[in-house]
Amino acid sequence: MDAAELVHSVAQDLTALHDSDLIVTGLVRRVRAGLGCDLAYVSLNDPASSETCIRFCDGVRTTAYGSIRMPIGTGVLGMAAAGVTTESPDYLPDLAKLHIEAVDVAVNEEGVRAILGTPLRAGGNVVGALTVANRVAGHFSTKQRALLEEAALIGSAAIEIYLLRREIADQQRAFNEELARLRDSASASIDRLRLSERFASALAAGKGSSELIKIATSILGGSVRLAEDSGEPPAVGTVIPLRPGVAIEFAGSDARLIANLAPVAANYLSIALLYENAIEDARHLRESELVERLVDPSSRKSGGELKTGLSGSGDLQVVVVDIEGALAPRSALSDVRRELGTQAISALRRGSLIVISRADGDVLSRLSRVLIDYRHYGGVASTPSSSGLAAGYTEALLVTRAMRSLGRANEITRRSNLGVVAFAIGDTSDGAKGFVDAQLGPIAGAANRDRILRETALAYLDAHGSVSTVAVRLRIHENTVRQRLDSLDRLLPEWRRGPRSLDIHVALRTCALLTEK
Q1: Which range among 39-43, 229-233, 281-285, 358-362 shows the weakest confidence by mean pLDDT?
Q2: 466 vs 425: CA distance, rounded Å
């Protein structure tokens, strides 16, 4: 095939074919056949990476060769892509060419020896290369070189059409993607508006947070609930904080639906919760103020004795309960008020639940039953009159903190039931400190090392000498536990043996309570 026939054939493809890929593929096949070469291929330049990449090929056997990416200006292909017709009669040993190791591997696997490449231009710029190759070494003839350059001229027109159509296709794809995004955005906005209307209607009708959660669940599907906000990312689903410690949790639904509607649900639920809490606080405002003034004399405007307003006569008791969780205290307060009615006055103070009633065992039993579903620590103290409630509150609060330090959950008790450590929260705290100093000596200080050793010693005695249990409890390696125990053995000889271990155990527990106090 001479140059005229090759150009005529490619020109016919340009007019007859509408698929630009087929036009360039036809160009490569006709060039290979016209020049009688083993391989022919077209590479296109990538300005972003400064590489030329083989896009169309004929006669190539290996995937590696057909996907070569070569820096522009290197080798035969890279030089042609830079705008210079280049030839190598035997490429791999040709030291005049700048070689790329990965490309040389592909060339060797394909068995290519001789290579001839010429540039392809579009709009006056070099956009790629038209290249032929043989699996035997040897120079290309002058006729072959001329035919390749002629083919590159008509081939440049094919490449220009290809690039133009690819640009149009890219623009069409980008347009379609933007159109789809706008449709999705409009649809999402409509969904948010509809959900907002349902929530607003529910709030206007006096519905509360529970009704709003039902609406959110019906629309989002899966599970929607109020939960504790741990601050950690959830294993599944989505968590949106509503206020410190409280969040709304979405799980088991379409992720895109949640991403779109969950913030709307969270906003309205936050409003509902604030409204409910405000109503509850307003309903019991006088009760909360009375409890505050009874347990904190400094909050009173006058020095006269306050009355509790409780029916009956006899001693009074004040209960202080620490309830775990951000949602639980307010929920427990509502349950207590509902259960005890006028037999008690109650409020939340500094995160703790306070209940004041007559010193009646039945009230305490009922209170314990109400709190059975909450993890809590409680203390109770009695007083003959309302003037002693402040002191009773202080004692009950200390007992509550002691119960937490002792790990005695879900129990409400008195100071007298704390055993040998009761003196640590009474009037003999000076004596308790002296006892701690005498027993713990070298580790009784406030230094971080002392605190860590006391923590390890207490965990060890609580675990009856189990190193593995201590490691799990303190979240450290067993070897670290043993190292700390060795340090304790040096500082407190015989601390974990015989009667001495009891004194140390009591001193460690007392020290923890004094620190809490």
Answers
A1: 229-233
A2: 30
- Residue 360 DSSP symbol: -
8 Å CB contact between 150 and 3 = yes
Sign of CA dihedral 380, 383, 386, 391: negative
- The pair of three-digit structure tokens given for residue 117, joined into one six-digit string: 């490449």
List Cβ<8 Å contacts ≥24 apart for 407-410. Answer: 408/377, 409/375, 409/376, 409/377, 410/371, 410/372, 410/375, 410/376
* Rounded-to-integer distance, Cα 494 and Cα 119, Å: 90
Measure CA of the first residue to CA of the last residue in the chain; give whole Å: 102
H or E, element range at 503: helix 498-516
3-state secondary structure of 75: helix
C-alpha–C-alpha distance, residues 320 and 391, integer Å: 12
Would you say the pTM of this structure is higher than 0.85?
Answer: no
Q: Which whole-number Å values give the CA distances from 423 to 399, 430, 479, 509, in the listed order?
A: 11, 10, 36, 12
pLDDT digits (tens, 9 = 90+) for 263-311: 888 888 888 888 877 877 777 888 888 999 899 877 766 656 778 888 8
Cβ 318 vs Cβ 381: under 8 Å: yes
For the stretch 20-23, contacts whose Cβ atoms lie closer than 8 Å and that sit 24 or more positions apart, written own/partner, are 20/158, 20/161, 20/162, 20/165, 20/166, 21/56, 21/162, 23/158, 23/161, 23/162
* Encoded tokens for 355: 């209940």
- From 420, 422, 402, select the one nearest 412 (Cα to Cα): 402
| pLDDT computed for residue 412 by the predictor | 93
| pLDDT, tens digit (0-9, with 9 covering 90-100), for 416-451 | 777 555 655 554 556 677 778 878 889 988 899 999
Q: Which long-range CB contacts under 8 A does 258-266 form with residues at least 24 apart?
A: 258/220, 260/188, 260/191, 260/192, 261/191, 261/192, 261/195, 261/216, 261/219, 261/220, 262/220, 262/238, 264/192, 264/195, 264/196, 264/199, 265/195, 265/199, 265/212, 265/216, 265/220, 265/224, 266/240, 266/242
- Amino acid identity for residue 49 in this structure: S
Q: What is the mean pLDDT of residues 344-366?
A: 91
Cβ neighbours of residue 59 closer than 8 Å, sequence gap 6 or more: 32, 37, 38, 39, 40
Across the strands, what pairs with 120? 128
The gap from C-alpha 236 to its chain's centroid, in whole angstroms, comes to 10
Which of 242, 334, 501, 454 is closest to 250 using CA atoms?
A: 242
- Residue 309 phi/psi, 5° resolution? 80, 5
Question: Residue 103 in contact with residue 70, Cβ under 8 Å?
Answer: yes
100: helix, coil or strand?
coil
d(CA 43, CA 112): 17
Other beta carbons within 10 angstroms of residue 358's beta carbon come to 18
- How many angstroms from the chain centroid is the CA of residue 237? 11
* Cα distances (Å, whole numbers) of residue 429 to 388, 398, 422: 21, 12, 10
What gap in Å lies between CA 515 and CA 510, rounded to an integer? Answer: 9
CA distances from 209 to 267, 273, 406, 502 (A): 11, 6, 37, 53
